[in-house]
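Lab notes, practical 5.
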Amino acid sequence: MVKYTPILETKHKNHRYDKKMQQMMHILTDKKYWGGDRTLTETGNSYKKFVGDMVSAISKGRHISPKMDKAIKGIVTRYVESTSPKKTLEKEARIKRLHWKIQEVRSKIDTAKYSQDYTSSGHHFLASIMSQVERTGKLSPKQKDALNKMYVKANKRIQKNGHNRNG
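Output from the prediction step:
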């Protein structure tokens, strides 16, 4: 563990936020937390930009309102909670489970023998979903619904094609 050493001078207007600023600077550089090694501007991540803005506000001596103070504390708290070993293991288990489900849908789409365009479009959608799963470990209800519909539709097509060949 690295020993805390103040960056801001004692006379700096926001010296009391020095430790929080350093914590947020660490958060901004944690590639695993942000999901890869993309820079702030490449991700388009408004939360990451907000964290950067808070660091900037502290370092430039801007007045820190009570609302900003609460946000700064929340940033650090959420980071600590989300990077705890227990949360990390839970996220990894969710990612593994969702990865398996997405692969199952991909397999059904391939087996259903759709047109090449439809199959390619489905694979592209699944790749984008997979990218989000690996980044966040979660899917929205609409994404889950879309995956389920793709699975059911492909399954029906497989069954229909199976009946046509046997009947």
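Observations recorded by the TA: The first helix runs from residue 18 to 29. Residues 15-83 form one domain.
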